[in-house]
Amino acid sequence: MKQSLKAKILPNEQANKTVTVMLIEKQPSSHSLLKESLIDFGYHVTKHISFNENMLEQLDACTPEVLILVTDSPSEQVLKDLAEVNQLLPLPIIIFSENDSPNVIQQAIKSGVSAYVVNEIFPQRLQSIISVANERFKAVQLLRNELQQAKTQLESRKYIDRAKGLIMEQKSISENEAYSTLRKMAMDQGCSLATVAKNIIDVCQLLSPARA
């Protein structure tokens, strides 16, 4: 049964042969059904560790593309570690667990888990689960990048507006003239408007008289 399933799926999933996975289980074993299934479907299990090992260090050492955890119920420490992973080494995270508590699932998602699968692990579902987790991870990362970009643009605009005000005050010129001055400085220095604006603000703060 296992061989027929493998023969049916693998020809259409050749790309999976390059996908690296780090697997975490309570008692890692060479006879792990999940590990064997991952290998059968062409994934490379680059690390197979227990929950007693340092997750972040192991991830940093082997840099897998997917992280899979198998646990009866993710502990608070595990969720805390996953949140740290999501900040420092973000990647698709999948949890296979027997705990179907909505609160636990919600906490797992907040920690950066891309897919939380309850109850028995069915090997034939592995590829679809990993695929969905990867797509959800990419969507979340895209949203995170867009939010960061918006935040950066807002901060840049604040720097530029403040620098324009300082130039207007010191040179007694209009806002348009101040902006043109700022643009010329940016072009001459080969820097962004925001960088030049921040430099102007920093210099003005440095030269301003200290308050008693």
Description:
With 212 residues, the protein is α/β, with parallel strands linked by helices. The chain has 2 domains: 120 residues, Response regulator (Rossmann fold); 61 residues, Winged helix-like DNA-binding domain superfamily/Winged helix DNA-binding domain (Arc Repressor Mutant, subunit A, Orthogonal Bundle), CATH 1.10.10. The protein has 8 helices and 5 strands. It has a 5-stranded parallel sheet, sandwiched between helices. Strand 4, helix 5 and strand 5 form a beta-alpha-beta unit. Helix 6 packs across helix 8. The longest helix is centred in the C-terminal third of the chain and has 46 residues. The termini are far apart.
Short description:
By secondary structure, this protein is an alpha/beta fold. The protein has helices at about 1-10, 35-40, 55-60, 75-90, 100-110, 125-170, 175-190, 195-205, and strands at about 20-25, 45-50, 65-70, 95, 115-120.
Name the features.
212 residues; single chain; 2 domains; 5 strands; five-stranded parallel β-sheet; elongated; alpha/beta; Rossmann fold; Arc Repressor Mutant, subunit A
List the helices and strands and how they pair.
Layout lengths: L1 H8 L10 E5 L8 H8 L3 E6 L5 H8 L3 E6 L4 H13 L4 E5 L4 H9 L4 E4 L7 H46 L3 H15 L3 H15 L5
Parallel strand pairs: 1-2, 1-3, 3-4, 4-5
Helix pairs in contact: 6-7, 6-8, 7-8
Q: Main sheet?
A: 5 strands, parallel
Share of helical residues: 55-70%
- Number of structural units classed as domains: 2
Radius of gyration: 26 Å
Strand order of the main beta sheet, please?
Answer: 2-1-3-4-5
Oligomer: single chain
Number of strands: 5
